[in-house]
Amino acid sequence: MRRLMFEARAQLASPVRNPRMATVVGRLLALAFLICFGTGLYSHFLQEPLPWMRFPTRPAGLYQFTQGTHILAGIACFPLLFAKLYVVFPQLFQYPPVKSFANFLERASIALFVGASLVEITIGLLNTYQWYPFPFPFRQVHFALSFVIIGSLLVHIGVKLPLIARHWRAAPAPAPEERHPVDTRSVPVIAATPTETSSDGLPRTGGITGRVLSYIDATPALPARTSRRGFLATVALGVTAVVGLTAGQTVAPLDGLNVFGPRKKGVGQQGVPVNRTSAQAKVGTAALATDWVLTVAHGSTERSFSRAELAALPQTAVDLPIACVEGWSQMASWRGVRLRDLVDQVGASPESDFRMISLEQRGGFKQTEMGREYVRDPLTLVALELNGEILDLEHGYPARLIAPGRPGVLQTKWLSRIEAIDA
Length: 423
Description:
Layout: H1 2-11, H2 19-47, H3 62-88, H4 101-128, H5 138-166, H6 181-184, H7 210-217, H8 228-244, H9 278-281, H10 284-287, E1 294-298, E2 301-305, H11 307-312, E3 316-323, E4 329-338, H12 339-344, E5 354-358, E6 367-370, H13 372-375, E7 381-386, E8 389-390, E9 400-402, E10 415-420
Parallel strand pairs: 1-10
Antiparallel strand pairs: 1-2, 3-4, 4-7, 5-6, 5-10, 7-8, 7-9
């Protein structure tokens, strides 16, 4: 078995398969995952805030930036993760498979990290296309796996920290214990003598000896298939391609290069993409009913407004993006009634949070909650118009919410009721 493992490692020898390259690629991958983790937590708590949480409403495009960054960093993880696996692949042929408890922690953490990462970025990518072929809820699993990934990553970094520190800046001569066929096409000379050898010159017991060194050196060195520069250039090209050909769904100047993104800017009713249609929400009949009213409630005080009455109130125009958790965003012009003006008509306190209720009867966001920081923001509207036209049914007719710095799923469409939570 030992002989087979050494032969496999020798056959896989490459200039890029060494601790220095593993460190270079590993720190890029770690950075991408940390960015995903931080921006993902922000998105999660925007959607499911803890009672004490308050969020900034400026800049108005904050969520557009954080979630766009989240998706792009997640996409960059694909080539970076595969590059890391390519570099460390020969370590699968280590013999014995586990050398110490620290080595066990290292191998277990990396196995957990790789497995969880592949699932995480794959279901994340599928979510951007709103395709869910897996039998578990996306949001909950995606959130839980993020902690598994970061935890296993921290364990792995902790175990490998001395090696990472040695190879962080430069490529020093490898320490004796690091020299193996995969790194240098040679085996270290280890001062240990076996008590017995087999007919092929390999030790039956004891440590690796000079005879093992002779055996490995007798294996002809394979020509390098990949240079370090070529490998890094390929990884950089891969990251640039997958990110650059997707970023256009968020970054307007790159819209023309948007090949992979599931949404295109300017494509959709009134020039704005649509995620959830009125047919999916099954709200067409209720939304188009002539007796539709928007009810605003604070405690026992309620007022109902027809669409004509809302249109007769003072109107405000704002430019705000729709920014969705799938990573796409679109700037648009909205016109409607300031939310704070509506809730003031029912005597709401400036400290009141509100619940937004849609005509939609099913779905995880048929009701959403809005903190006082958004309710009182002058840019938060009950919108009646989009891009100079009456709001299209697919965009929430007869009235919808639009607020700065909020995920698109919280910009409730087909509003029917707005009620104070703490009244």
